[in-house]
């Protein structure tokens, strides 16, 4: 679980834009961001389905824990590199890393396809899409600054991470329920918060259909969506018998 909180200051030398120019630029940037986010989700879904339908690949991963650990470390590394080098990384490199991250996530999520019924996964995806879409829309259109909620959400994210680690060693249904509730609240809030910050990022991003800023913005929303989906699945998912 992750949601980078790095700020993206305007680049020096940006021309002064009128209100109409700013609106057009923001709309173009958001279209690119949500487009790349959808690409990431499609890559994840396709990879998860392919791995889940391949007993040979699943056997290799299950029998070699080092591979699963390596996948997790690679995911964290890709998120860090994309977020830290947003101002210097070429768009093509950012795109390749984002697609690679989405594919790696699909590999780790493939086991969920085996743990839950297809119907519950589909219904949870629809619920998550509605909740995420509503919060992202609110963050985009509201004139109220959500900056003050950023620190609160970040502390909630840290709390969820720590509680999840504790839950790995201390199995408690009550703890898992609390973590799941907080997780849904945190990532729903981050969807609105990150969506609002994208409007500011749009004015700092280079113009064009593909930019590193757009890919990093897509990564932020992608992470919010995936984690929101996983926490909602804890409530709505029906495990296979």
Short overview:
The chain has helices at residues 19-52, 55-63, 65-84, 91-115, 118-141, 147-169, 173-202, 212-236. Helix content is 79%, strand content 0%.
How would you characterize this protein structure?
The chain has 241 residues and is mainly alpha-helical. 79% of the residues lie in helices and 0% in strands. The protein is built from eight helices and no strands. The chain has helices spanning 19-52, 55-63, 65-84, 91-115, 118-141, 147-169, 173-202, 212-236.
Query: Average pLDDT, to the nearest integer?
Result: 84
**Total strands:** 0
**CA-to-CA gap between the ends?**
28 Å
Query: H/E element string?
Result: HHHHHHHH
Shape: globular
Derived structural class: mainly alpha
Main sheet characteristics: none
Radius of gyration: 18 Å
DSSP helix count? 8
Poorly predicted segments: 1-15
Helical fraction equals over 70%
Q: Which range does the strand content fall in?
A: under 5%
Task: Jot down its keywords.
241 residues; mainly alpha; 8 helices; 79% helix; disordered N terminus
